[in-house]
């Protein structure tokens, strides 16, 4: 838009300058031709000895006949018979065919300037016929034209800019709708998963349909991949359960020596991994679980009770401890699937317990935008550059947060998927020391009842 306006402004400026130059040159040329023709006509009368007195003139022309001493020997009615129109220094220029000169109008009691032409006449060219024409009207015409251009060109430029702004805005509005739709895809669980198609049958509509077709193919591939993972995980459960039973029987009857005891932890880890894969596949489907109103303080108390025998104590923050309430004496209430929220928060607490130094703290905060549940540990924390990468599947970090600490690399991805499909989000932050995981959830609707 800026480039276009600058281009139009340059074109208008160039056109205005050319118009001004052409008009002023045309007016000046017409005045020059007029005084030259008149001077040649009067010189012919002088040469023929038929010069009348006073000398006839046309319109505002001023005519004088000057001798070699620059004295007025003949003049028109409106000309001064004492003061010559041109100084003596300019007589030779005019007499030699030098064209037209401009002199101050004060020499003829005129305002502005005079356009003067001279032609030598008489015996031996001893006389000089001088014809002058006031330039006041042409000067006023040039000034008026300049003012019109200075006023009209900005107005025309502004009008064209407004029209271009509206036209370009209308042309790009479908593109902005596509951009906004693409930004909502995947970010908002309740937003449509396709781009809006404009009503017009043009290139933008064709682009939207093509992109939606691509999204359909991508969603289909993702759905097939998810179904494959879910089917594979489901099919693995039976052989893993059989292997677990066989190991337990072998260990009980003493077959295999120490091998059953050594394989049991790895089998348990493999079983947990399969269950996590199945959960992750189900969490990514298009179905939204039934939501309910969940009193968050009581929910966190239930979660903390599950970890009574954990490696480090899992406690509630003072304001979330038994007997504490939320704002205005009411307990904060979230609106989500209880099973999804329980699995997500449990995964976060499991991760915090594995890496905490002394304790894990659960807290809840309510504001106008919803409910925020936090799980805070006092361990080594996670670098800011890795806080997004840990949500990748099977992602493991160095130091304490690795497979040796018991993690499969799926706990945080599962938590994010479960929270996302309930309209929330998870963010990690520095707890100084340790790590704070914040689960943001929508608050329960005012009309929603418990459970």
Quick structural summary:
The chain has 451 residues and is an alpha+beta fold.
Task: Considering the chains and any ligands shown, give keywords for the structure.
single chain, alpha+beta, Beta-Lactamase, Helix Hairpins, 5-stranded antiparallel sheet, 5-stranded mixed sheet, 8 helices
Secondary structure topology:
Layout: H1 2-47, E1 62-66, E2 72-75, H2 88-95, E3 100-104, E4 113-121, E5 127-134, H3 136-184, H4 203-253, H5 259-283, E6 292-295, H6 296-306, E7 314-316, E8 333-336, H7 338-355, E9 360-367, E10 370-377, H8 411-420, E11 425-430, E12 435-441
Parallel strand pairs: 7-9
Antiparallel strand pairs: 1-2, 1-5, 3-4, 4-5, 6-8, 9-10, 10-12, 11-12
Task: Walk me through the structure.
- It is a single chain.
- The protein is α+β, with helices and mostly antiparallel strands and 451 residues long.
- The protein folds into three domains: 2-140, 2-Layer Sandwich (Beta-Lactamase), CATH 3.30.450; 203-283, Orthogonal Bundle (Helix Hairpins); 292-441, Histidine kinase-like ATPase, C-terminal domain (Heat Shock Protein 90, 2-Layer Sandwich), CATH 3.30.565.
- It has eight helices and twelve strands.
- The strands form three sheets. Strands 2-1-5-4-3 form a five-stranded antiparallel β-sheet. A five-stranded mixed β-sheet has the order 7-9-10-12-11.
- A hairpin with a 4-residue loop joins strand 11 (425-430) and strand 12.
- The longest helix is centred in the middle third of the chain and has 51 residues, at 203-253.
CATH class of the largest domain: Alpha Beta
- Radius of gyration equals 48 Å
Task: Write out the CATH superfamily name of the largest domain.
Answer: Histidine kinase-like ATPase, C-terminal domain
Per CATH, which architecture of the largest domain? 2-Layer Sandwich
Main sheet summary: 5 strands, antiparallel
Question: Averaged pLDDT, please?
Answer: 81
The coarse overall form would be rod-shaped
Distance between the termini: 56 Å
The total of helices stands at: 8
Strand line-up in the sheet with most strands? 2-1-5-4-3
What is the CATH topology of the largest domain? Heat Shock Protein 90
The arrangement of helices and strands along the chain is: HEEHEEEHHHEHEEHEEHEE
Q: How much beta, percentage-wise?
A: 15-25%
Instruction: Name the structural class.
Output: alpha+beta
Question: What share of residues is helical?
Answer: 40-55%
Unreliable spans are 322-328, 400-405, 446-451
Total E-strand runs: 12
Number of domains: 3
């Amino acid at each position: 838009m800026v480039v276009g306006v600058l281009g139009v402004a340059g074109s208008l400026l160039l056109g205005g300058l050319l118009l001004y130059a052409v008009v002023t040159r045309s007016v000046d040329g017409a005045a020059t031709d007029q005084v030259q023709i008149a001077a040649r006509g009067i010189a012919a009368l002088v040469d023929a000895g038929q010069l009348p007195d006073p000398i006839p003139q046309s319109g505002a022309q001023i005519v004088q006949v000057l001798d070699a001493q620059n004295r007025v020997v003949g003049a028109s009615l409106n000309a001064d018979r004492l003061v010559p129109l041109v100084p003596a220094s300019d007589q030779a220029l005019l007499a030699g065919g030098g064209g037209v000169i401009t002199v101050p109008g004060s020499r003829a009691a005129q305002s502005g300037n005079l356009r003067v032409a001279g032609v030598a006449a008489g015996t031996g060219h001893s006389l000089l016929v001088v014809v002058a024409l006031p330039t006041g009207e042409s000067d006023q015409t040039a000034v008026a034209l300049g003012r019109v251009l200075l006023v009209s060109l900005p107005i025309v430029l502004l009008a064209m800019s407004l029209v271009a702004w509206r036209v370009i805005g209308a042309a790009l509005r479908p593109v902005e709708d596509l951009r906004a739709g693409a930004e909502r895809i995947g970010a908002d669980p309740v937003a449509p998963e396709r781009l809006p198609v404009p009503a017009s049958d043009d290139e933008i509509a064709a682009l939207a349909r093509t992109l939606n077709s691509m999204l359909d193919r991508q969603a289909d591939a993702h759905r097939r991949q998810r179904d494959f993972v879910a089917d594979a995980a489901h099919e693995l459960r039976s052989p893993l359960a059989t292997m677990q039973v066989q190991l337990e029987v072998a260990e009980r009857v003493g077959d295999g020596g120490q091998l059953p005891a050594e394989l049991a932890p790895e089998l348990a880890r493999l079983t947990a991994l399969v269950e996590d894969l199945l959960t992750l596949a189900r969490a990514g489907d298009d179905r939204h679980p039934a939501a309910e109103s969940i009193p968050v303080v009581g929910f966190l108390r239930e979660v903390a009770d599950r970890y009574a025998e954990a490696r480090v104590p899992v406690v509630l923050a003072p304001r979330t401890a038994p007997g504490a309430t939320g704002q205005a004496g009411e307990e904060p209430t979230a609106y989500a699937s209880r099973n999804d929220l329980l699995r997500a928060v449990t995964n976060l607490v499991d991760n915090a317990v594995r890496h905490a130094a002394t304790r894990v703290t659960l807290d809840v905060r309510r504001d106008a935008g919803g409910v925020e549940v936090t799980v805070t540990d006092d361990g080594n924390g996670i670098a800011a550059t890795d806080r997004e990468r840990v949500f990748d599947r099977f992602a493991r970090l160095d130091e304490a947060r690795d497979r040796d600490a018991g993690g499969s690399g799926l706990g945080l991805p599962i938590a994010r998927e479960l929270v996302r499909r309930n309209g929330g989000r998870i963010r990690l932050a520095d707890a100084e020391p340790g790590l704070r995981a914040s689960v943001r959830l929508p608050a329960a609707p005012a009309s929603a009842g418990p459970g």
